[in-house]
Design goal:
Number of strands: 0
InterPro entries: DUF1361 (IPR009793)
Structural class: mainly alpha
Pfam families: DUF1361
Shape: globular
Protein name: DUF1361 domain-containing protein
Number of helices: 8
Radius of gyration: 19 Å
Keywords: Membrane, Transmembrane, Transmembrane helix
Number of domains: 1
Organism: Hymenobacter jeongseonensis
Helix content: over 70%
């Protein structure tokens, strides 16, 4: 798939800022290892890698020199949706924040907030790419329906990952257990209030955040025209 040089140049500032922000998280994680001699938060590097995967997929589609074929969009879109919850999932790593000996509390706060921020920004940047692709082909309202459903499904994925400890690979490695747990919650919703509480609350939070990010840049773009 050939890359459009014009699209690439337009996105270079975004790539630079995201790389800078991710670099800060890497430095903070590495600094903590040097400070404590422990690998306690090294797992956040893997979480950041998983969070970057959907952005890489959506960016590849958006940078294509020619409009991707529908079958390719569907294929990449399915893989994208599978990995997309890994990005906003980083917000829940705030659960790991507590006072620990050998490292200032403010340092751990900055470290985890940095990773959570990167997860959110990668999620929103990736969703914006996919939202734009859907909107160009189907229209404005189908685009927003797609974005809303994607965020709600990602919130459900956050629940599956944080509380049931499933991950994106389990759709291949452990599909029967994953399917059973999902089906059980769909058939008996009132037996699992936490499932739907997490899904709805995080879904609304992510949707409001996404709408805010989109609106923040619009007035400035109009002023520069």
């Amino acid at each position: 798939m050939a890359i459009s040089s014009l699209a690439l140049r337009r996105r270079l500032p975004l790539f630079f800022v995201l790389a800078l922000s991710l670099g800060l998280s890497f430095v903070l994680i590495g600094g903590r290892v040097l400070l404590t001699g422990k690998l306690q938060f090294i797992f956040l590097l893997w979480n950041l890698f998983l969070a970057a995967l959907p952005f890489c997929l959506s960016a590849a589609l958006s940078l294509a020199a020619n409009p991707p074929r529908p079958w390719l969009i569907l294929l990449v879109g399915a893989v994208w949706l599978l990995f997309f919850p890994n990005a906003p999932y980083l917000v829940t790593d705030l659960f790991h924040l507590e006072i620990r000996p050998g490292v200032p509390y403010w340092y751990d706060l900055a470290l985890i907030l940095s990773c959570s921020w990167n997860g959110l920004m990668l999620a929103y940047a990736s969703l914006l790419d996919m939202h734009t692709l859907v909107q160009r082909r189907l229209g404005r309202w189908p685009g927003w329906v797609f974005a809303t459903v994607a965020l709600l499904l990602s919130s459900f994925g956050i629940y599956l990952g944080r509380y049931l400890r499933f991950n994106s690979w389990d759709i291949l490695a452990n599909p029967l257990t994953l399917f059973y747990d999902i089906l059980n919650r769909l058939v008996n919703p009132f037996s699992y209030p936490r499932t739907w509480g997490v899904t709805v609350v995080f879904g609304v939070f992510l949707l409001i955040g996404y709408g805010t990010v989109r609106l923040l840049g619009r007035p400035h773009e109009e002023e520069l025209r």
